[in-house]
Design goal:
The chain is an alpha+beta fold. The protein contains twelve helices and 15 strands. 39% of the residues lie in helices and 20% in strands. The strands form three sheets. It has an eight-stranded mixed beta sheet with strand order 4-3-5-6-7-8-9-10, sandwiched between helices. The protein has a five-stranded mixed beta sheet with strand order 12-11-13-15-14, with helices on both faces. It has a two-stranded antiparallel ribbon with strand order 1-2. A hairpin with a 2-residue loop joins β3 and β4. It binds 1,6-di-O-phosphono-alpha-D-fructofuranose.
């Protein structure tokens, strides 16, 4: 493997060759040169000395040998450097490696720019056969565009009232929630709706097909930091409704991530897709058929408080650290799980204990993410029995749950270490 040390060695050898070459040509002057001067060898080695050639003299053997060595070394150095650049190792990265004595522990994108990206309409036309669902998705994405714009221009301040769960409500939470309620109450597709901010199911259009369940702005405690936050939506059919159904009954789910860019991850007929909000508020398909690898080296450990009571969680975190996993955790469920769709790996763990009870909601957060991650080839655990979060019955709108979600082998490790269950 190419390293700066090796490159430095080559340059040292080249410098020695150059010095030898100069020395030799100074000590043993070329035939026909009577009086060596300090300038003559330089001329012989470094410039095309036409005057000595014309006079019939030849450069001395030492100079020729050293000059050839120099040329070969220079060529080798250039080839090595080119190879390193082709492997994506910038000099800065090489320097960082040497400075910290570390191998790369950050995971950079390998996405290459395409000449053309499909639009949302083009993808939905072929990847979502149900026209009603297509209409539903378009309406939801329009609401997410409005939330993006609201987040750009509104300060994060405390709203007068707290929500139904007693959480402090922020102005941006209320704006996002109102925008989704505007959608739900006017859409011909929605028959019932429920927001994380209000723990009840509200009947809307009687002829509507879908039950919507959303967390308007997950990450209230980090949005003032200007960190990434998101909207989470689960869509159930009216035939199952919400109460008594499971996450597996969802007909689709989507999660919108408001970061430097706005991106949305959604389940279509044949897998998970990412769309990015571009100029003129047009969505383009930035990733299709996303797959999460079985193994991973990225961990996002939520509710670490529980490690004080649950020995297995303490052991699991120790496993991540002793095996040099990379910590990527912000405290926002949306960025902390969505990284699995861009890095194609990762595990998010949120076990619970008596003194650190569950915070996540099944219908508003865990089930919509469960559908996305499992459709992308990942795995989930309900954090109690070890079974898929998608098989947990929704008994109440505000039902809370533990959760492990992400790369399959790591969810198995969570089940065996924290829950002491054997992998199925
Ligand atoms: P907030 O909306 O109060 O910020 O809570 C966010 C959240 O429910 C979820 O987004 C995170 O995964 C979880 O809390 C993290 O909580 P801890 O890091 O405190 O365990």
């Amino acid at each position: 493997m190419w390293s700066l040390r090796r490159e430095r060695c080559l340059f040292v050898v080249m410098a020695v060759c150059l010095a030898c070459s100069l020395g030799l040509s100074f000590i043993v002057p070329p035939a026909g040169v009577q009086q060596p001067s300090f300038r003559a060898p330089l001329r012989n080695v470094l410039v095309d000395d036409t005057s000595s050639t014309l006079a019939g003299s030849t450069p001395n053997l030492g100079s020729v040998a050293c000059f050839t060595c120099l040329a070969v070394m220079g060529l080798a150095a250039a080839m090595h450097r080119r190879k390193a650049c082709q492997k994506g190792q910038s000099l800065v990265a090489l320097k960082a490696d040497e400075a910290y004595g570390a191998s790369h522990t950050s995971f950079y994108t390998d996405a290459v720019a395409k000449d053309k990206y499909d639009t949302l309409e083009e993808v939905l036309a072929t990847k979502l056969k149900d026209d009603k669902l297509k209409g539903m998705v378009n309406e939801l994405l329009d609401a997410c565009v409005k939330i993006t714009e609201a987040l750009r221009v509104n300060l994060v301040t405390v709203n007068d009232a707290s929500n139904a769960f007693g959480d402090t409500q922020l102005t941006v939470d209320v704006i996002a929630d109102d925008l989704l309620w505007d959608l739900a109450k006017t859409s011909k597709y929605v028959c019932e709706a429920s927001s994380e901010e209000e723990p009840e199911i509200v009947k809307t259009c009687p002829d509507g097909q879908y039950v919507l369940c959303w967390d308007p702005l997950d990450g209230s405690s980090i949005v003032d930091n200007n960190w990434a936050v998101g909207t989470i939506v689960g869509v159930w059919d009216k035939s199952t409704g919400l109460i008594g159904a499971t996450g597996r009954d969802q007909v689709m789910s989507l999660v919108t991530l408001y970061g430097p860019r706005t991106t949305v991850f959604m389940t279509l007929d044949d897998g998970v897709y990412e769309f990015t909000l571009g100029p003129g508020n047009q969505w383009i398909c930035s990733q299709d058929q996303i797959q999460i690898k079985t193994e991973c080296k990225i961990f996002a450990p939520a509710n670490m408080r529980a490690a004080q009571d649950v020995e297995g969680y303490s052991k699991l975190i120790d496993h991540y650290m002793t095996n040099k996993y990379t910590l990527r955790y912000s405290g926002g469920l949306v960025p902390d799980v969505c990284q699995q769709f861009t890095k194609k790996q990762g595990v998010f763990t949120n076990p619970t204990s008596k003194s650190s009870p569950a915070k996540l909601r099944l219908a508003f957060e865990a089930a919509p993410f469960g559908r996305l991650v499992e459709m992308a080839g990942g795995k989930t655990s309900d954090g109690v029995t070890g079974k898929s979060i998608l098989d947990v019955k929704i008994e109440a709108v505000d039902q809370r749950t533990a959760l492990a979600i992400g790369s399959a082998a790591e969810v198995d490790r969570f089940n065996s270490t924290v829950l002491q269950l054997q992998a199925a």
